[in-house]
Design brief:
Blueprint lengths: L6 H12 L1 H4 L12 H18 L4 H13 L12 E2 L2 E2 H16 L4 H9 L13 H18 L5
Antiparallel strand pairs: 1-2
Helix pairs in contact: 1-4, 3-4, 3-7, 4-6, 4-7, 5-6, 6-7
């Protein structure tokens, strides 16, 4: 991944990567050959690069790590039905991911906003309201493009 992170950031990221609930994301394909788990990890690392350039605080980076790992915590293969009976995946999954994350983890306001708003502007009624959410939303799009075109890290 080529990006240095602090020992504290790495410890948090390792805890999340090893969490059995989060590990379930390894089973679901996402962009091309990339799993939802690997995509989420790519988003976290890209977000941290941006956060370091903007001199975000330790707490803001913690929010990015948690929110970034959980932003696509929807736990289903969206390729099997992009149009679900309850809506279209593109617009629906941030709400599903937040519901799943809320039921498994204790999240703060910023982490919830990261998850719920990461598809902005596709989800116009749920815009990012903190710097961390804007960063993860941008990183998500950067990573998705790289992953679709085969240049993911």
């Amino acid at each position: 991944m080529g990006h240095k992170i602090s020992e504290e950031e790495n410890a948090l990221l390792q805890r999340l990567k090893n969490d059995e609930k989060i590990s379930k994301m390894r089973a679901f394909p996402h962009h091309g050959t990339i799993t939802v788990f690997d995509h989420s990890l790519n988003v976290v690392m890209t977000s941290l690069r941006i956060a370091n350039r903007l001199s975000l605080t330790k707490k803001q980076k913690e929010n990015i790590i948690i929110g970034g790992m959980l932003h696509d915590f929807f736990l289903y293969d969206w390729h099997e039905g992009r149009i679900r009976k309850d809506g279209i995946h593109c617009w629906l999954h941030p709400k599903v991911a937040l519901g799943n994350a809320n039921s498994c983890f204790e999240l703060n306001k910023q982490q919830k906003n990261i998850i719920r708003s990461h598809m902005f502007p596709a989800t116009l009624l749920h815009p990012p309201t903190c710097r961390e959410a804007w960063i993860v939303s941008a990183a998500d799009k950067i990573c998705a493009v790289k992953e679709y075109f085969g240049s993911a890290e």
